[in-house]
Amino acid sequence: xxxxxxxxxxxxxxxxxxxxxxxxxxxxxxxxxxxxxxxxxxxxxxxxxxxxxxxxxxxxxxxxxxxxxxxxxxxxxxxxxxxxxxxxxxxxxxxxxxxxxxxxxxxxxxxxxxxxxxxxxxxxxxxxxxxxxxxxxxxxxxxxxxxxxxxxx
Length: 153
Known about the structure:
Mean pLDDT: 90
Structural class: alpha+beta
Strand content: 25-35%
Low-confidence stretches: none
Largest sheet: 6 strands, mixed
Distance between the termini: 33 Å
Helix content: 25-40%
Number of domains: 1
CATH topology: Aminopeptidase
Number of helices: 4
CATH class: Alpha Beta
CATH superfamily: Gcn5-related N-acetyltransferase (GNAT)
Order of helices and strands: EEHHEEEHEH
Number of strands: 6
C-alpha cells in the first residue's frame, strides 16, 4: 500500500483536490493572474508549460515521490497548485511545497487553510514525524506566511 494516496481535503476557505489534466485550462487562467511564472526566485509554470507541469507532477505521483493537489477557493474556483513532495515514506516525512496561487487569493485565508489541511493530514492520517517547508531566501511573502503558521527555521 502506498504511503500517499490521492485524497480531497476540505476547509471553509479552500479545498485541495487531486491534480488532474482536466484542471489544465483553469490552472492556466489562475497562473495568468499575477503572471506568476515571471517571479525569478521561484518556479511557477507558465501558461505554455502548464500541461507539461501537470504531466511532471503526475509522473512523480506515480513514482511515489509526490502527491499533487489543485487548490480551489471557497467559491469553487481553481486558484493554484500545491504538493506533498520529497516524500520519504520509510522515515514518515514529507515536504509541503511547489505551491503557487493566483494573485487574487494571495494574502487571504486560503493559503493558511491549505497549509493547515496539509499539516493535519500529514500528522494525523499519515502519522508523519516531520513536515518540512522550503522556500527561497528572497521569497519574503512565502517566508512570512510560513512563519505565521508557527513554523521554525
